[in-house]
UniProtKB/TrEMBL annotation:
GO terms for molecular function: fructose-bisphosphate aldolase activity; zinc ion binding. Binds 2 Zn(2+) ions per subunit. One is catalytic and the other provides a structural contribution. It catalyses: beta-D-fructose 1,6-bisphosphate = D-glyceraldehyde 3-phosphate + dihydroxyacetone phosphate. SUPFAM superfamilies: Aldolase (SSF51569). Keywords: Glycolysis, Lyase, Metal-binding, Zinc. Zn(2+) 2 binds at D146, E176. It comes from Pyronema omphalodes (strain CBS 100304). The keyword NADP does not apply. This is Fructose-bisphosphate aldolase.
Length: 361
């Protein structure tokens, strides 16, 4: 069986346009989903790339609005999204520069952009267009716009406007409809009734009809009981089988021949079971967002290091082996930050294996 690399014209580094489409089509057909890892630093970028390289997998790296500001540095003002725009651009250039060294295709994406954050997306699109002028492709492979808090008609109308701007660059746009519970990036849906957490097939088709008239390069994050952020098991019932009804309904409406006309995205997956992921993937989920689990995984290595090496990091010289023993090799950040990279990388590998992404290259 030919691997996913066969369908790509650029086989390593950041991919764009038709390659992104080809990769998602291949994933949908071969029933795997690509984990989208929220990165906030060069350290979390390389931890993710290392996992994907070792697992022979494509990977999606994404920055959130807050993560992008962190990339710029917490000391930089975020008035008018200044830090978030510049941090996202810096992350993009860094990832574009280093990704080819890992020999795998990488989708460079930006995460949730709610209505009040649209100036962030505008700033990134300005940079995409500049980059497109110079290089014939956008800086970012794709962006996400999240107007799921707005009324459906407004959500679709504004999303369509942004797709019109992205379309000439063949840039991918991910959108969200319905409510994903929990709290993330300032959107708090923890108080929403459970029955409101499921998007209806008619809504999905309305999105498809409006957006497909502009460009084929889009995907939909639909609510099927997902919860963003911290997940309390048993609090919410996931119904990934609903995604199958979305596909069937849209297929019927467009009298299509393809069983899965939609590209779907799984948000709020932290804590979900492997079976829930696989059911969602079998219904056309090609991207799964992973943030919370990886934040914890990154912490684990550093936490354990600090606890087990406590007596070697309290002063520059002097440890249980002698008062004159130097501790430089214990407090060098390359040593202890690396421990976080190892545990994060191991967790990314687990996701790559769970979502059938491993060995697809
Ligand atoms: Zn979401």
């Amino acid at each position: 069986m030919p691997g996913a690399l066969e369908v790509l014209s650029r086989k390593q580094g950041v991919i764009v346009g038709d390659d992104v489409m080809a990769l998602f089509k291949y994933a949908r057909e071969h029933k795997f989903a690509i984990p989208a890892i929220n990165v906030t630093s060069s350290s979390t970028v390389v931890a993710s790339l290392e996992a994907a390289r070792d697992a022979k997998s494509p990977i999606i790296l994404q920055v959130s609005q807050g993560g992008a500001a962190y990339f710029a540095g917490k000391g930089v003002s975020n008035t008018n999204q200044f830090a978030s725009i510049n941090g996202a651009i810096a992350a993009a250039h860094y990832i574009r520069a280093i990704a080819p060294a890992y020999g795998i295709p990488v989708v460079l994406h930006t995460d949730h952009c709610a209505k009040k954050l649209l100036p962030w997306l505008d700033g990134m699109l300005d940079e995409d267009e500049k980059y497109f002028q110079a290089h014939g492709e956008p800086l970012f492979s794709s962006h996400m716009i999240d107007l799921s808090e707005e009324e459906k008609d407004e959500n679709i109308a504004i999303t369509k406007k942004y797709l019109e701007r992205a379309a000439p660059m063949k840039q991918w746009l991910e959108m969200e409809i319905g409510i994903t519970g929990g709290e993330e990036d300032g959107v708090d849906n923890t108080g929403v009734d459970n029955s409101a957490l499921y998007t209806q097939p008619e809504d999905i088709y309305d999105v498809y009809a409006a957006l497909s008239s502009v460009s084929p390069y889009f995907s939909i994050a639909a609510g099927f009981g997902n919860v963003h952020g911290v997940y309390k098991p048993g609090n919410v019932k996931l119904h990934p089988e609903l995604l199958g009804s979305h596909q069937a309904y849209t297929k019927e409406q467009i009298k299509g021949t393809e069983d899965k006309p939609l590209f779907l995205v799984f948000h709020g997956g932290s804590g979900s079971s492997k079976e829930e992921f696989l059911t969602a993937i079998s219904h056309g989920v090609v991207k799964v967002n992973l943030d919370t689990d990886l934040q914890f995984a990154y912490l684990q290595g550093i936490r354990d290091y600090m606890l087990t090496k406590k007596d070697y990091i309290m002063k520059q010289v002097g440890n249980p082996e002698g008062d004159d023993k130097p501790n430089k090799k214990y407090f060098d950040p390359r040593v202890w930050v690396r421990e976080g990279e190892k545990t994060m990388s191991a967790r990314v590998k687990e996701a790559l294996s769970d979502f059938n992404t491993a060995n697809q290259l």
